[in-house]
Recover the amino acids of this structure.
C-alpha cells in the first residue's frame, strides 16, 4: 500500500480538535510529553485500568516523533558488542528481547483498522559502506543463535542487484522489521489512547512540579493537576522546571526530504521495497507514494529551517545514485532528538513516583514503544525490569561545548565514513583488475600449449639469445640420450 506525504503542518492537518487543560484534575499517572514514548505509556497504562493525563506544551507529535521515516526494527543505538561489554551477555540478551517486544507493540497497533492509511510494509536492509564480510558472518551468527532474531546475510552481488550503486557492499536483511507512515502513527497512537480513556491536553506547558509526597503536584498556566506518578517523557524541550534533565541530552536535529515523482526509473535503481539504512548511520531512505524517495541524512546540533537542507538531501541522493541525476526535493521536514552520552535511552525511576522515558535519539520507534510498555507495567504491576537500564546513568551532555563537540564529531564521522568507503571501492577496483590480469595470463598459458604463444596485451616478447650464446649454453647430448628420446 502506498503512502502519501504532504507538507501540511501537523498542527493544521485536522487530526483532532486540540484541548487545553483549563480545570484542576486528579489522575493516577501524569505523562509530560505527547510524543511516541509518552503516548505509548498513556495507551498501555489506560489499557491496564489507570487514569492518565498527558500534558503537551505544543501539540501531539510536533517534534521528532512526528517527523521520522517510520522504520521499526529490533535493537538499540549502542552496537550490540558494546552493549554486551557494558552490561554482560545475559542482560544484553534480555534488553534485546524487550526491544523486539517494542517493535511488536508498534505492529499490533499499526493496523489499517486502527490507523487507516498507515501503510505497513515488511523488510529493512542495513547496508555496509565498506567490505566487512568476516564481521558480517560473526554478527549474523550472534543475532540468529544468541539473540533469536531472524536475519539474512546478503552478499555484495545481491545488495547491488536491488540497489544500483557501488557505494554499498554487504547487507543484513531483517525480514520481520517493517515501516509505517510515521506521521500517521503518532497521531493514530494518540487517537487510540483517547479512545481507551486517556486525557491528552495540548498547548499546556508545565510551569512547575512538586514531586514530594504521595500525590505529586503539577502546575500549568491555567490549572493544576495531581497524580501519584509523573512520567517525564519529553525530550530536550522539557522546559525550565526540568532543565537539569534536558541538559543530559545532546540536541541533534535530523532533516529529511521527499523528492518529486521519479517515475519507473526509481524502481529500477532502488528495487528494494522496504527501508534502507547504512551501518554508519548517515543515510536512511525508502520509496513512498509510489515513485518518490524519502531520504534522511543531514544532521546538526542547532535548529534550522528544514527547507535549508533540500539541496543537501538532493546532493546526497545524487552521490549514492548518480543515475537519478539532479532530483527535485518538494517537501522537507525535521525534528530534534535527544542523544545521550552513553548511547542508550533513559528509562526508569528517578525517585519514588517520578519516572523518566527519554533519550531516544537514534534509538528507533521500537525503543519508545518498549519504554511505554516497561514504565506502565512498572507502575501498575511492579515490574522491575527497568533496572536493566540502571548502568546507563544520567550524564551531563556538556552544554554548548558538548553541542560544538557533537557537531565536530558528526563531521569527522561522515568524513571518516566517506574516506573508508572510497578506500574500500579503490581496493575493490584493484582486485577486479588483478583478476582480469590473472585471467589474461591464464588464457595466454592455455593458448601456448596448443599453438603459437599469444601474449596478453601490454606484455612484450623476450628477445631470443644470440646463436653463439645459445650454442655455448647448450649441453652435449650423449648417444644414449638421443636414442632414449
Amino acid at each position: 500500500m502506498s503512502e502519501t506525504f504532504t507538507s501540511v503542518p501537523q498542527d493544521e492537518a485536522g487530526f483532532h480538535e486540540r484541548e487545553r487543560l483549563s480545570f484542576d484534575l486528579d489522575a493516577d499517572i501524569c505523562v509530560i510529553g505527547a510524543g511516541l514514548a509518552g503516548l505509548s505509556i498513556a495507551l498501555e497504562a489506560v489499557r491496564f485500568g489507570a487514569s492518565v493525563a498527558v500534558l503537551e506544551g505544543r501539540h501531539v507529535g510536533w517534534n521528532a516523533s512526528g517527523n521520522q521515516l517510520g522504520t521499526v526494527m529490533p535493537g538499540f543505538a549502542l552496537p550490540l558488542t558494546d552493549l554486551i561489554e557494558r552490561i554482560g551477555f545475559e542482560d544484553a540478551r534480555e534488553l534485546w528481547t524487550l526491544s523486539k517486544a517494542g517493535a511488536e507493540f508498534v505492529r499490533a497497533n499499526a493496523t489499517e483498522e486502527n490507523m487507516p492509511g498507515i501503510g505497513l510494509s515488511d523488510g529493512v536492509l542495513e547496508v555496509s559502506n565498506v567490505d566487512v564480510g568476516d564481521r558480517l558472518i560473526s554478527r549474523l551468527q550472534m543475532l540468529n543463535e544468541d539473540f533469536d532474531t531472524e536475519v539474512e546475510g546478503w552478499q555484495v552481488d545481491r545488495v547491488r542487484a536491488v540497489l544500483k550503486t557501488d557505494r554499498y557492499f554487504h547487507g543484513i536483511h531483517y525480514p520481520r522489521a517493517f515501516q509505517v507512515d510515521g506521521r500517521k502513527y503518532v497521531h493514530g497512537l494518540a487517537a487510540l489512547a483517547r479512545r481507551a480513556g486517556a486525557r491528552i491536553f495540548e498547548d499546556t506547558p508545565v510551569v512547575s512540579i512538586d514531586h514530594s509526597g504521595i500525590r505529586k503536584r503539577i502546575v500549568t498556566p491555567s490549572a493544576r493537576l495531581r497524580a501519584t506518578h509523573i512520567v517525564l517523557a519529553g525530550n530536550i524541550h522539557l522546559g525550565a522546571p526540568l532543565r537539569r534533565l534536558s541538559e543530559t541530552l545532546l540536541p541533534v536535529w535530523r532533516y529529511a526530504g521527499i523528492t518529486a515523482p521519479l517515475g519507473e526509473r526509481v524502481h529500477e535503481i532502488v528495487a528494494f521495497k522496504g527501508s534502507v539504512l547504512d551501518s554508519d548511520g548517515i543515510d536512511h531512505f525508502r520509496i513512498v507514494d509510489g515513485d518518490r524517495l524519502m531520504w534522511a541524512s543531514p544532521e546538526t546540533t542547532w535548529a534550522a529551517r528544514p527547507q535549508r537542507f533540500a539541496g543537501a538531501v538532493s546532493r546526497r541522493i545524487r552521490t549514492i545514485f548518480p543515475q537519478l541525476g539532479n532530483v527535485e526535493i518538494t517537501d522537507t521536514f525535521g525534528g530534534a532528538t535527544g542523544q545521550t552520552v552513553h548511547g542508550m535511552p533513559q528509562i526508569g525511576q528517578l525517585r519514588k513516583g517520578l519516572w523518566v522515558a527519554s533519550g531516544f535519539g537514534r534509538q528507533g520507534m521500537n525503543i519508545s514503544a518498549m519504554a511505554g510498555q516497561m514504565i506502565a507495567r512498572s507502575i501498575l504491576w511492579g515490574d522491575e525490569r527497568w533496572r536493566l537500564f540502571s548502568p546507563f546513568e544520567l550524564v551531563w551532555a556538556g552544554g554548548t561545548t558538548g553541542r560544538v563537540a557533537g557537531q565536530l564529531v558528526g563531521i569527522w564521522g561522515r568524513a571518516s565514513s566517506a574516506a573508508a568507503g572510497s578506500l574500500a571501492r579503490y581496493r575493490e577496483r584493484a582486485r577486479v583488475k588483478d583478476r582480469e590480469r590473472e585471467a589474461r595470463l591464464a588464457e595466454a598459458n592455455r593458448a601456448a600449449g596448443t599453438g603459437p604463444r599469444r601474449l596478453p596485451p601490454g606484455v612484450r616478447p623476450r628477445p631470443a639469445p644470440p646463436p653463439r650464446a645459445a650454442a655455448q649454453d647448450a649441453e652435449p647430448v650423449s648417444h644414449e640420450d638421443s636414442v632414449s628420446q
Q: What stands out?
A: Residues 1-15, 468-485 have pLDDT under 50 and may be disordered. DSSP finds 13 helices and 17 strands in the chain. The longest strand covers residues 329-339.
